[in-house]
Design a protein that fits this description.
The protein is mostly beta strands. The protein has one helix at residues 14-21; strands spanning 27-32, 36-44, 48-53, 56-61, 65-70. The protein is elongated, with a radius of gyration of 14 Å.
């Protein structure tokens, strides 16, 4: 009997990833499929970003982002 090994599959949008890397450290407004988060963009990874808002980190999957507005 063979064992199945779970695998992780994630779609990477290289254009969004590269664009967001250019605004790390700045304030952004991120519209997701569930709502809006405003705060400092602290981390950009191929599959998610981290926005610090109100002292808490919000981990947002890039696949869930609708649009982003840099605020400076």
């Amino acid at each position: 009997m063979s064992q199945l090994t779970p695998s992780f599959v994630s779609n990477i949008d290289p254009y969004v990833y590269q664009t967001l890397q250019g605004v790390v450290g700045g304030v952004v407004v991120v519209q997701t499929t569930k709502g809006t988060v405003t705060g400092k963009l602290t981390t950009v990874m191929p599959d998610h970003i981290v926005v610090e808002s109100g002292g808490s980190p919000f981990f947002i999957r890039i696949q869930q982002i609708v649009w982003v507005i840099p605020r400076g």
